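Weekly structure sync - notes
Attendees: PM, LS, DV (DV joined late)
Agenda: review two folding runs queued last week.

Item 1: First target. Sequence and structure tokens pasted below for the record.
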Amino acid sequence: MSPLSHEAAVASLVANLPVVKTGAGAAQTPDSKSGTQSGQQPPVELLDRDHSILAFNERVFDWAVRTDVPLLERLRYLCIVSSNLDEFFEVRAAPHITAAKNGETKGLYTEASFEALSAQAHDLVARQYALYNESLVPAFAAQGIRIVPHGERSEGQKRWVHDYFMREVRPLLIPVGLDPAHPFPQVANKSLNFIVRLKGRDAFGRENEIAIVKVPRALPRLIRMPPKVAPKEALFVSLSSIVRAHLHDLFPGREVTEFSQFRVTRHSDLALDEEDVRNLRTALRQGLQHRHYGQAVRLEVSAGCSVFLSDFLLGQFDLPGAALYRVGGPVNLVRLTQLVDLVNDPALLFPPWRSVWPRQMQPGVSILEQLRHRDILMHQPFESFDGLLAFLREAVNDPQVLVIKQTIYRTGSDSELMDLLTEAVRRGKEVMAVVELKARFDEEANINWAEALESIGAQ
């Protein structure tokens, strides 16, 4: 498949996006004369923001479809789309859900806007799983890479999986049978869970029909089987299939009649009015405590989930039917990025990116001395971030540097930049850092860094 030209791509994108009309009267074409004779400006046509985000992700999905892209990179693009969709639902879906539940017919968010967005999202998700099952899975199998479901495991592999379950998984699972004394538990945002329908009575004689099994995030979602049970191929098992194969072990004396994995996505945007809070950091800390349990906006279940169980979950999360997504595979495709790292075959990946040393920065010569003669521009990510680290490292070690001022937007949990600022404080330099606390989904990490710097005397 050859990529579209820039002009064709833009034309395709614009042609498929809804239009938001502003001003009096109907939307007009660019050559329309209506409205100009009376001195009024013709109404402006704007692309709908939420549909634009979904359309962008369709462009990303196109890279997962392309057969000229290395196989592991195609999987990575597929996972990127899923990660982007997660963030879309977490940030943009709540007003549409609320409007649909309230029967709104006017305004920016209505029942119609929810239905239109749902239709576009459902179509994209359906194409994702079709690509995964019909193209990527066979392509990986041709390379000797398989995620083996329970029904296809040999007896030796089943014994190994059972031992792994009993040793690594079972001690962390706490099934919750629902009854008046044990209501539906709090289910965290994007966590893996199972819903189970049971027959018979539990050890206390209760006939609780529904049970929930929450799977801890700490457990890896993909596990590679050892060579003793997979000598010729790279074989993996998913955590969800391990739990699924052993659900009966979690309910001794009961009959499991129905079950499904499920995942709920919750509204997670921290909307704070900075003028209404005295301490932004404290307000964000308090908001982060509740982020994992915000308003439910999407429910994902297995394709074979019964109507009884899906309706039960929709009722628990107070969601309309269009917010239900039945998927033919793992409910969290994002976690399949682990397969990219576990396989790590250069033949199935893009060549590694080698960023160049900043061209305006002469290597082996004091950067501070170079700056006395001219400014230096670094263009990232095309030029290496190592240039900036070298500059900061030199400033930290130079006794004539008395003050370091730094603006920080996002950092990793293991950041050499933050370590260098810490070292600067230790050496007695004045350090002032402006840290963006509202960097979406990095708020907690940035708050932690800000507090760590303050605790040692940085401003």
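Item 2: Second target, run right after the first with the same settings.
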Amino acid sequence: MSIVEKYPQGAPCWIDLITTDVDGARAFYGELFGWNYDAYPMPGDATYYMSTIGGKNVAGLMQQPTPDAGPTSWQTYIAVDDAEAAAARVTEAGGTLLFPVDEIPGSGRMTIALDTEGARFGVWQTTGHIGSAVVNEHGAPLWHELQSGDPAAAAAFYSAVLGVEAKTSEVGDISYTELYADGTSSAGVMPKQSGDEPNVWLVYFGANDPDETARLAESIGATVLAPAFDIDGVGRMAILADPQGGVFAVMRGES
């Protein structure tokens, strides 16, 4: 099990699913990845569920607050040393804050923002909860990838906000940009495949066998958007949508 105890500024550190059916989502991902859950009451009648592997936090799941809150989606949070300073840089670089920095007592300070291309992401300053404590394992976050209509502009935005270094290379027939946090490749930026697709962060989960994971996912209500395929030098992956429509990928990286 790959255990994380600290994330550097600029590295994706947490994910959560905002879903139209949190009970259905818990059942689906529990069967798919073997997740267990801890429940944390929130203001009102809401509950935030922490999924775990081996007792370690992996991801969050939460019911959408209102029926018109938008489609089910996974959300990537990026570690920052100072949430207020990062929020100020978001607006300075042309992004949009969806709400002021909020304090989650004993856990962290955070906000949600849109980058210059409209992709939604979170910033997270830990005050106790570092984020995903398990990574690079079956059912745990493996990679985070921004699919953007303007990858160069997006990379410049995240570099300005987070201080990450952007390095671009050719992968197959596309230009792929890696974002380096504290000298380590931590996320990717690639061109979205068609103009009508949204600009989004895509979460990849580890899968020992992406083909079998995709088959299991489909048998319990998921839609296979892209059957398992290989990328030389990277690994084998499939892209799926959960029963509520939340898009994610599963991947076995090349060692």
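Discussion on item 2: The longest helix spans residues 22-33.
Action: LS to circulate a short write-up before next sync.
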